[in-house]
Fold Methionyl-tRNA formyltransferase.
Amino acid sequence: MRIVFMGTPEFAVPSLNLLLDSGYDVVAVVTQPDRPKGRKKTLTPPPVKEAALQRGLPVLQPERMRRPEAVAEVAAYKPDLIVTAAYGQILPVGVLELPRLGCINVHGSLLPKYRGGAPIQRAVINGETVTGVTIMYMAEGLDTGDMISRVEVPIGPEDTSGALFAKLSAAGAELLGRTIPSIIDGTAEAVPQNEAEATYAPNLTREDERIDWNRSAVQIDNQVRGLSPMAGAFTFFQGEVFKVRECRVIAGPEANAGLGRKTPGTLAASDGKLVVQTGDGLLELTTIQPAGKKAMPASDWLKGARIPEDAVLGGEEQ
């Protein structure tokens, strides 16, 4: 059986390796083009490309999968099955109809919840306590195809998106290994999704990264964890971008010794800790990144920072 694998980020690498280590014939790998990365804008290959080249596999990197020449490139490998995992482009009908066994996707949520490009980040941001992986047949819509198998994965109270990516990546590969045999022998059950339960997880925007201090400490903590270690949540301090990389909700007796009923966003140093009043509760900022600097412990920043009395985070960039 000839398999074409399609994926791009680190999330997809364990699924590719699972197929290869299990002896499946992966005839080609399709991934996104190399992109500039970092401050120096160094052209960098995606993790799946690096993994594929290490295993001696041919790699295709079409800019647009919908272009006829891209479809023809994939068709030339005569796949019996296409497996995708966080590829990053919607497949056209011409690709979906190529393999006799169909196209399946390893999706990082419990469908039909969190369809779309950022299901892992938004599950953390929204305060979910359980998520998972669904393997589904691909259809023309956005993650609307029939479900084949799924596995639940708990979200811990301190899990960041980065930590959850690793958990779901491993769980998805293991689930793929258990699911493919039923697809090959024709015993896989395709279960339609309940459209009434569908929710969406669109790609994150800069506005999703901005902290609204009128929200509760718990909600802001979820936001910070959901954006870590990627772009990070941000606010403004004295008119400059001020990122919050890690924080914790202040609870119990400690919460009663805080800032009182100050304006949400009010910032203060308390016993060597950087504390912010939110719309509901107090939040300690433990790792921060001031404009133009690297991330650092808030305690280190406090040693040299001058915080005006009743300083308030937020506003706009100057």
